[in-house]
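Q: My labmate handed me this sequence with no annotations at all. I'd like to see what the chain might look like in three dimensions before we decide whether it's worth expressing. Could you predict it?
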Amino acid sequence: AGCEKEPSSYMWIYILLGNMLRGIGETPITPLGISYLDDFAKEEDVPVYVACLHTIAMLGPMFGFLLGSLCAKLYVDIGFVDLGNITITPQDSRWVGAWWLGFLIAAVTNFLAAIPFCFLPKSLKKPEKANNGKTSFGLLENTGATGNRLIYPFLSDFCTSLKKVLGNRMYFTFLCCSLLQFSSFIGFLTYKPKYMEQQYGQSTSKSNFLIGLTSLPPVGIGIFLGGLIMKKYKMSIVGATKFAFTMSFFAYVIALSHFLVGCENYVVAGMTVSYE
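A: Here is what I predict for the chain of 276 residues:
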């Protein structure tokens, strides 16, 4: 009778709400942070600052994978059961790591990291060569977004900004390219650990450790070097576009080599070979 009853738990609701709150808190950092840098920094320094911002954003998942690797070595019910009675090891397919521990550590870290944001000034003194005429507020004023500010302050600005952004063909093309790149990158990070577990017999902990150590740091280094190159050669929009196209083309060619990597399937009686 116990086997017929499906297990039910509402803990997923807490995970959903936690991720929702995390997304609400983290989302403004990138768009508003970049605008903050673009408004109050010298024009030639902006690429380096933005590159540093994205590099740190890449280091976060790297440390997340390493933390996940550490937590996966701990039994899921750590602190609630006597670990001396556990007879299986992390190499056993039945092993379940303490996946929930990473959420608690990340929550405390996020809370501590958010405290300094409360002390940032609303406005900074602009340098002599700052982008004085390129602030987001100035763009909205030039497009007439402030006309209906008293009637529909939010919708008026949002619709005008959205129309202006989507009407920019270069930005819209860049947005589509970014969607494709991140979709492939997320798929890569999602399924490669499982591929390493199945094909190479690695534990979940070892797979997360290798992914965090080998996949994400090169991306962060590449972003940082890209910002330095743009600053050194003072690339224009067209120059930066050609540079991005060249690097993306070489990345695509190198990525084709993934099709050459593979392993034979496991020998499973009744599936890949006959019972005889």
